[in-house]
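Suppose you are handed only these lines of text.
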Amino acid sequence: MRIDIITVLPELLESPFNHSIMKRAKAKGLLEVYLHNLRDHTPYKQGQVDDYQFGGGAGMVMMPEPLAILIELLQKDRKYDEVIYMTPDGLLYDQKTANTLSLKENIIIICGHYKGIDERIRQHFVTREISIGDYVLSGGELAAAVVVDSIGRLLPGVLNDETSALFDSFQDGLLAPPVYTRPADFRGWRVPEILMSGDPKKVDEWRHEESLKRTADRRPGLMKEDGQE
Ligand code: ADE
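From them, the structure of the protein bound to adenine can be written out as follows.
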């Protein structure tokens, strides 16, 4: 999978994909991430990419021209399955969307700044608008990193058995159960006996029960058919 990220702050995204699982995904050739500095593609002087909004009001808006130029430049070389815009007024991101995106071949992600991007780019280029939560970040970069990380780890061959995504929270619509490691007795706080029983069926049952309890307690909405909370 190839992901092209359009940003005015490429420095912010240099580290997140160069460690741990993302680094492995890239090293194995399963994931390619390219950062594009929007200022390198603007036709305006001094790297200008934003301007005042029509109608007045505080805050700058990212101009359509530099974005269109860069998106079309990328589209000349390959077909993109999605042009995603990271924005707090997008659809809320979840594991289901991560699963869907992990099946795509080529994706462009636009990171917004200031008041956001000109609406015409959203109408004519963007195929999907994503929010990672009901709070406002100072730019779309960290949100893009979240999306790329969550997609990257789902690509076949990236995770091994030990880190398999199948047992993640949300993958079966439930939160993950508690986990324990050595020592079995830490300051008198003991690991549940059943986990040391050596009976895999009992352990599975216990984990499932704990998942249900945790989900009912923290995210009851996940247990409803439609996932709405
Ligand atoms: N840009 C700023 N805030 C954001 C959010 N919550 N999700 C996605 N992109 C954003």
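What can we learn from it? The radius of gyration is 21 Å. The pocket of adenine is lined by residues 86-88, 112, 131-133, 135-137, 140, 143 (CB under 6 Å).
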